[in-house]
Amino acid sequence: MLIQYVLVASSVGLLILFLRRRGTARTAAGTKLAFLLFVIFGIYAAVRPMDVQLVADWLGVGRGTDLLLYALVVIFTFATLNAYLRFKELELRYARLARAIALQNAEPPSDAPVD
Questions:
Q1: Using CA atoms, how far apart are residues 15 and 83, in angstroms rounded to an integer?
Q2: pTM metric for this prediction
Q3: Total of domains in the chain
């Protein structure tokens, strides 16, 4: 089936792109490992969709595609929350850095007595 080749090729391409960008973004090893496992699962699901259906039946989900959708929603929620928390941490770091630079460059007022 053509769709299997398209899905596998796009998954491998995303994996290569993600793993090669290690110099531009600090990505934890756990995140890379989770992404690798997700890509492997995606490739496996594209090649063997009946196995996903068996897992869906075992978990009580109607169809394998529904199971994949539920997993995607959970992963998207995790990724969004992770990005939000990272941006909040960076915002706090920048605020602390700006405060430290302001204090370091601060000069006493000209009318203040000098010790």
A1: 19
A2: 0.60
A3: 1
